[in-house]
Design goal:
The chain has 14 helices and 6 strands. It is α+β, with helices and mostly antiparallel strands. Helix 8 runs antiparallel to helix 9 and helix 11 (275-289) packs across helix 14 (339-355). The chain binds fe (ii) ion.
Length: 360
């Protein structure tokens, strides 16, 4: 089994351990045991943020430092920076705190809730460069789940009654789409003072209206949420209204802002601003809506649209600034500024689109 496969089989186990005990330290204890045992690392554990120090929490492995200052060592740096830190060679990390001489590489992942870092997950390996983007992805996912601690009964209901509905939808809206939006919106939600169970349910239900109609599916999703009496086991009327409104607002366009933070979280988690896709779609739209334009006309229209919507001061709005879309929008803006590079991409896509079937 490679690392990705190990994480994939471990993730559902990790998620099922979280929340049942209704105690954060108990969850940390079981998670560090599971991760340590399955992944075979040298040291796996949590430090909790207490005042201006990190204090040793549940862990597996040899004895460790009990207190680490803000900004000190790899753990304190991850806390200070507010992001995951991967260190391929701890000897080369300035200010590294050596708890054990056996440790060669390290990853530290913050556990954030309501915008504040509550703890960090710290993992050491005896091998150099043991950690990469795969570890970051899955460990951040686990730390988000730990921070959010979704009600296990609610999760069981969603997994058995809501998510299977996606199996009959089109390829872009199958169960994996709902799961991606759940993971992404929960991660974004850790920056805000929100109720994670509401975010989770809104994300899980946001597209269920596709069972009736594509054009109005967001409105149908909201109606189905309001009609679902099972949700009353976990939510009051006001909370159900928030969940339904968030689902209804998930198709927010630039002219229609989601009414609440819940709608903003789901809408942002549901979209992906990919620079090349944006450019290709702009060309596709032009070809189908302005068939009278020639190549130069399409180039001018493409430029105008990209500037109006995506450039600095353009009308596109990010609902959640901490979203990965922020970095992708920056990349697109760099591309818009570099007109020579943009023209090259335009020529490639324009040619490819024209070589395909005529646009009606
Ligand atoms: Fe949708």
């Amino acid at each position: 089994m490679d690392k990705e496969q190990k994480y994939r089989s471990l993730l559902p186990q990790a998620v099922s351990l979280i929340g049942a005990s209704k105690d954060l330290v108990a969850d940390m204890a079981n998670l560090s045991a599971l991760l340590h045992q399955e992944m075979g690392w040298w040291w796996t554990g949590f430090y909790r943020a207490v005042g201006n120090e990190l204090v040793l929490g549940p862990f597996q492995g040899p004895v460790a430092c009990t207190r680490i200052g803000f900004g000190k060592g790899v753990c304190g740096s991850a806390w200070e920076r507010g992001e995951t830190v991967i260190v391929p060679d701890v000897e080369a990390f300035p200010g590294h705190i050596a708890c054990s001489t056996e440790s060669r590489s390290e990853i530290v992942v913050p556990v954030r809730l309501c915008g504040e870092i509550r703890a960090v997950l710290d993992i050491d390996s005896r091998e150099l460069a043991c950690f990469d983007g795969t570890d970051r992805l899955y460990l951040e996912r686990i730390c988000t789940e730990l921070a959010c601690r979704i009600n296990p009964e609610l999760r069981a209901y969603v997994e058995s009654e809501i998510l299977p509905r996606y199996d009959s939808f089109d390829k872009g809206h199958r169960r994996d789409h709902a799961e991606t939006v759940i993971a992404q919106s929960l991660q974004l939600s850790t920056w805000y003072d929100v109720q994670p169970d509401l975010v989770y349910t809104a994300a899980a239900c946001h597209d269920i209206g596709l069972c009736e109609d594509r054009a109005t599916h967001h409105i149908v999703s909201a109606r189905l949420i309001r009609e679902d009496t099972n949700l009353q086991k976990w939510f009051n009327a006001k909370q159900i209204a928030l969940i339904a409104d968030a689902a209804e607002d998930h198709r927010a366009s630039s002219g229609h802002e989601p009414r609440t933070i819940y709608g903003k979280l789901i809408a942002e988690a549901d979209r992906q601003i990919l620079p090349e896709t944006v450019i290709r779609r702009t060309i596709q739209y032009g070809l189908s809506h302005y068939p009278g334009l020639d190549r130069e006309g399409h180039w001018a229209r493409t430029l105008e649209h990209l500037h109006e919507k995506y450039a600095e001061g353009g009308y596109l709005r990010l609902w959640i600034p901490q979203s990965p879309n922020a970095a992708r929008l920056e990349e697109l803006r760099r591309l818009i500024r570099d007109e020579a590079r943009l023209r090259t991409l335009f020529e490639t896509f324009y040619q490819e689109e024209n070589d395909q079937e005529p646009h009606i």
